[in-house]
Amino acid sequence: MAKLNSEANEQAVTTRQWIGLQTDLPRLDCELALCQILGVNRASILAQPERALSLLQLEELDYWTSSLRKDIPFAYLSGEQEFWGLSLNVSPDVLVPRPETELLVESALSLLKRNAQLLDLGTGSGAIALAIASERQDAQVTATDVSAKALQVAKQNAEQLGITVNFQESHWFKNLGGTWQIIVSNPPYIDPDDPHLKHLHAEPQHALIAGEKGLADLREIISEAPAYLNNKGWLLVEHGYDQAEQVRHLLEQRGFQAVTSHKDLANIERISLGQYIYE
Ligand code: GLN
């Protein structure tokens, strides 16, 4: 704060000047923080760069920027994240939905038959299940999570968006009965030794980290899924940037057919899928 005041020479700091001082943060994050604190949209921030910031606003902004520098995700500060065009509430009880996960939604939608059942394992904020259900009112969508707190966030999102999803507390398939045409999951898949983890410390670690170099939960889901799939049903899973080959191998070993991977916008094989045909 002292720095801000002296640089502004005792005069009010404008939004333009304030952005200029945050040299180590992405400009977009700074603009969006200003939107939140000033209660205006980004067009207004861009159109009026000479708007003066009050001391209280500067203090609030300082809290945001120091949090961002400590790798607190922007979405935990604002309490919301957009996914598939839906505005979702998020809290530190759920992973912040990532844009690359939209690939899982897109691929599941292209395989989902009319009036079919779809299961989302480990739904977190509800992002995948709600995105799919928002597109397809004919589908019966079930979403699970092992965390009751995460399910609360997901249920609140469903209510606010007016989307119907059947939520159930379950560790993977443990409390589930029935079969589905499609099962999707974005399970934890980060190797406990991955150095990137230190930047993800604010998010629920059980939603990120898996044993066996990140493959333990993927292996469990792939192994159990056939018992919960209709004949010719599909399993689609998200995985790490370097796990596609191993995940395809797990699917093939378990008897899945038409096994393939899809690339995300960064050209990384990000999801793998397979179809299970009864003998
Ligand atoms: N894609 C996330 C990341 O790398 C991880 C999500 C997950 O583990 N399911 O930050």
Task: Explain how this protein is built.
The chain has helices at 2-7, 15-21, 27-38, 42-47, 55-69, 74-78, 102-111, 127-135, 148-161, 211-214, 216-224, 244-253; strands at residues 13-14, 52-53, 80-83, 86-89, 117-121, 140-145, 166-169, 180-185, 229-238, 257-263, 269-276. The protein is α/β, with parallel strands linked by helices and 279 residues long. The chain folds into two domains: 2-70, Helicase, Ruva Protein, domain 3, CATH 1.10.8; 91-276, Rossmann fold (3-Layer(aba) Sandwich), CATH 3.40.50.150. The chain has a seven-stranded mixed sheet, with helices on both faces. Strands 1-2 form a two-stranded antiparallel ribbon. Strand 6, helix 9 and strand 7 (166-169) form a beta-alpha-beta unit. The structure holds glutamine (GLN). Glutamine is lined by residues 98, 186, 188-190, 200, 208.
Could you name the key traits of this structure?
alpha/beta; elongated; about 280 residues; binds glutamine; 2 domains; Helicase, Ruva Protein, domain 3
Largest sheet: 7 strands, mixed
Helix content: 25-40%
Derived structural class:
alpha/beta
In DSSP terms, counting alpha (H) and pi (I) runs of 4 or more, how many helices?
A: 12
Q: Encode the helix/strand succession as letters.
A: HEHHHEHHEEHEHEHEEHHEHEE
CATH names the topology of the largest domain as Rossmann fold
User: CATH top level of the largest domain?
Assistant: Alpha Beta
List unreliable stretches of 5+ residues.
5-9
Beta content: 15-25%
Name the bound molecules. Answer: glutamine
What integer is the average pLDDT? 96
- CA(first)-CA(last) distance: 69 Å
Taken from the alpha-carbon principal axes, the silhouette is: elongated
CATH architecture identity of the largest domain: 3-Layer(aba) Sandwich
Which value, in Å, is the CA radius of gyration? 22 Å
Q: Can you tell me the number of structural domains?
A: 2
SS elements, strand count:
11
CATH superfamily of the largest domain: Vaccinia Virus protein VP39
Strand order across the largest sheet = 7-6-5-8-9-11-10
